[in-house]
């Protein structure tokens, strides 16, 4: 096998990915090529690709077609302004969660405008640390200096969250706790803002192959037929742990908007509303104490 031109290799990869049904085939082909060639942008790449790199590129395209998430192929995932590490066994953060962070930042700014200093923020089920790190770094850039804690039961996820926080220069306190038994570890400390992208998928929902075969099921399914067992625990915890005027921002399934609002109001929140994702679907709960 001889060397290939970069252009022909990109055309080949894009065509293969498009034929497999990937709508962002051109972007994914470019991402894989940048990873193989170890360049930040293809404009920095040589016009000719060596034999070994050509083989590697084709292997990655084949793995992607077989359902491997591109984040696990390259070891990187992007979230808001962050470039984070991804690894096997840890939930891959998705674009829809960016709206959760957007809402949480708005709540943090509201609290700061009301006179709150050194906001205390807790991210439950932090996974890779994406939400906690985005909040800490973005609020810091806005002139706030929040104290951010991130709770996670998975040792692999905690390790990755620590690595991502270090890479981003974020000061995050990572805690080894299980949100489903929060009464066993909560010692009465209060928080201004609680944020979470918890497991919430209802039982029996058919998920895409790349999700069900690669994301840990413990990070996907929320428990019970309706997937609401873990979200219920988070709402219960937030009702106890938030300060007066504080807020909970929690991602949920697009079928759970009404149930999460009702649960929050039953638990004593003064208001509860449903936020939409970029596709216009019910995606997160915003509840204020």
Describe what this molecule looks like in 3D:
- This protein is α/β, with parallel strands linked by helices.
- It has two domains: 4-66; 89-288, Vaccinia Virus protein VP39 (Rossmann fold, 3-Layer(aba) Sandwich), CATH 3.40.50.
- Helix content is 40%, strand content 20%.
- The chain has ten helices and eleven strands.
- Strands 7-6-5-8-9-11-10 form a seven-stranded mixed β-sheet, sandwiched between helices. The protein has a two-stranded antiparallel ribbon with strand order 1-2.
- Helix 7 (155-168) links the parallel strand 6 (147-152) and strand 7.
- The longest helix is centred in the middle third of the chain and has 16 residues, at 98-113.
- It is elongated.
- The termini are far apart.
- The relative contact order is 0.11.
- The mean pLDDT is 95.
Give the helices and strands, then pairings:
Elements lengths: L3 E2 H14 L5 H13 L10 E2 L1 H15 L4 H5 L1 E4 L2 E4 L12 H16 L6 E5 L5 H12 L5 E6 L2 H14 L3 E5 L14 E6 L12 H4 L16 H13 E10 L5 H10 L4 E6 L5 E7 L1
Parallel strand pairs: 5-6, 5-8, 6-7, 8-9
Antiparallel strand pairs: 1-2, 3-4, 9-11, 10-11
Helix pairs in contact: 1-2, 1-3, 2-3, 5-6
Protein name: peptide chain release factor N(5)-glutamine methyltransferase
Enzyme class: transferase
EC number: 2.1.1.297
């Amino acid at each position: 096998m001889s060397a290939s031109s970069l252009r022909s290799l990109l055309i080949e990869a894009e065509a293969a990915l498009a034929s497999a049904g990937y709508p962002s085939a051109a972007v994914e082909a470019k991402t894989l090529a940048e990873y193989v060639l170890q360049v930040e942008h293809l404009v920095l790449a040589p016009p000719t690709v060596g034999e070994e790199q050509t083989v590697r590129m084709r292997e990655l395209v084949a793995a992607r077609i077989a359902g491997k998430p591109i984040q696990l192929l390259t070891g990187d995932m992007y979230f808001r302004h962050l470039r984070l590490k991804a690894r096997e066994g840890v939930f891959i953060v998705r674009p829809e969660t960016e709206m959760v962070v957007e809402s949480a930042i708005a709540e943090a700014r509201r609290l700061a405008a009301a006179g709150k200093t050194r906001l205390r923020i807790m991210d439950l089920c932090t996974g890779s640390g994406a939400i906690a790190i985005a909040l800490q770094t973005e609020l810091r850039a806005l002139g706030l200096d929040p104290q951010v804690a991130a709770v996670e039961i998975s040792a692999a996820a905690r390790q990755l969250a620590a690595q991502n926080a270090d890479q981003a220069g974020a000061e995050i306190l990572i805690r080894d706790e299980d949100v489903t038994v929060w009464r066993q570890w909560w010692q009465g400390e209060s928080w201004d803002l609680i944020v979470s992208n918890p497991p919430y998928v209802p039982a029996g929902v058919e998920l895409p192959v790349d999700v069900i075969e690669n994301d840990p099921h413990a990070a996907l399914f929320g428990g019970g037929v309706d997937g609401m067992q873990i979200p219920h625990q988070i709402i219960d915890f937030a009702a106890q742990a938030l300060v007066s005027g504080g807020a909970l921002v929690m991602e949920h399934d697009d079928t759970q908007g009404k149930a999460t609002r009702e649960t929050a109001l039953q638990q004593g929140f003064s208001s509860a509303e449903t936020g939409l994702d970029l596709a216009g679907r019910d995606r997160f709960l915003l509840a204020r104490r």
